[in-house]
Amino acid sequence: MEVCLNSTKLLNLNQNTRLFVPRNSISHSLKNPILQFNSNVQKRPLNYPLNQRSCFSRQIRSLQRPISSRIKAAPASSATSGSETDKLPADIMVTETQEPNSRVRLSVEVPAAVGEDCYKRVLKEFMKQAKIPGFRPGKIPESILLNYVGEESVQKATVESILKRTLPHAMSTVTGRALRDSVRIITKFSDMEKSYSSLSSLSYDVIVDVAPEVKWISENGYKSMKIVVEIDHDIEAEKACEQEIKRRHKSLGTLKIVTDRGLQVGDLAVLDISATTIDQDESKVQKVPAAESKGFQLDTEDDDKVLPGFLDSIIGIRQGETKSFPYVFPETWQQENLRGVEAQFTVECKELFYRDLPELNDSIADKLFPGCTDLNQVKESLLQKCQEMEQAAKDQATDTAILDQLCKMVEIDIPQSLFEEQGRQLYGARLLEIQANVKLNEQQLATLSSPKAVNEFLENQRENIINLIKQNLAVGDIFKREKLQFSTEELVKEVQNSVAEFKRHKQEYDEERVREQVQDVLEGAKVLEWLKEHADIQYVTR
């Protein structure tokens, strides 16, 4: 076992174990320091080689562990870095106290008999290592050894030995419940030294996060869920098909400058737009930054993408002309601070174009959809694709609505370590996405990977992270409750597909972690399928 306790000195007690000696640390943690974001310990940035995206990707993926890999029963030995339990000459006393956020405090009292046994072991180890002139290894008198090594060093090593041997015993009380990488010894090492020095016994406190309990507000409420799914009218296959044909037809046209008239529906205009608030007191008039735009390209056939009524106010404007008009932002406008605001808009038409389109007939069918010979084939082919997209969007909206409702049906006391790890996983995915789409310089990479950036993300996304954890835990609970299963063949096939994808992109992977992630996905799919079969689902078009 290796207990990381902010150490400055290392003592080899035997060939297989290393125990670090802390120096009055505020909090002794068994967490992986790369994953650690505890306020009591030094925060470390996400370090990765610059200009090496593959290395960057490997590090971020290493942070992305499925929740199940931490929630599923972790034996005490795994929680204490894999050490085997050593037999003690006397029993230790462990008092367990429940704390908020699915956390348990273990108060450990070590009797003098254990301390004495550890002291003898430490002396024996020092005797083997010490080379004192005139004495053979292992045959050095205790008083001479203590004088040579130093009583303080022996005492510190003895306290370390006590921790090493008793911690697995203490953790056995939370076997199957402790979350991996969440154990922290919170008693100062200096206090343990004083306690041992004066009493030959020792006591210390351990904090550990345990698997949270999923409490259903209504015990079997998930078995008869009533779901209302809102579907955007834009994904309706028939309408989407018509819009796509129109878009493809427009792409075949050429833009020509309008010279003899003003703006009309069907044109494309390039506009400079500005706006100010309206107030009788001119000193209180302010610009509306959100409404300002230079070189804004307005397609008059997409008027639903601009302010309601905006297009009507500029119909007829000519190239080079400026129009000014009052406008009241609707109460339903997405920016709350602009709802109901009275503003004065000024619009200058910089350029004005019309589309010279080919006639929409069978002669351009192949250009609208390669392989088609007439417009009916074009419509049938596009309609099929739009129907597939509609169904996919419908399924996604249904899944989202079910998961959102599951969040409201459970109460879960989420451990801080689980929240932080899930948040880091999401942030890692965000960094990978940014790195894939934007070429970042060294300073930008350092800023984005700093502890400050990660902590800000955790705080800003707190509600989303908590909801995601609740969804995952609720789904896992339903999978167990309803005794759902997936076949080994499904698991093997999906793992092979995932591994093949990693190899295709020449990316490193951990097959065990891939297997865990695939298992989570399959469990989630089975639960969503089961919930859909048992739920009353109503679809509403918005």
From TrEMBL:
NCBIfam families: tig (TIGR00115). It is an enzyme of class 5 (isomerase). This is peptidylprolyl isomerase. The keyword Cell inner membrane does not apply. HAMAP family: Trigger_factor_Tig. Keywords: Chaperone, Coiled coil, Isomerase, Rotamase. Residues 67-88 are annotated as: Disordered. SUPFAM superfamilies: FKBP-like, Triger factor/SurA peptide-binding domain-like, Trigger factor ribosome-binding domain. Residues 94-232 form the Trigger factor ribosome-binding bacterial domain. One of its GO terms (molecular function) is peptidyl-prolyl cis-trans isomerase activity. Residues 372-399 form a coiled coil.
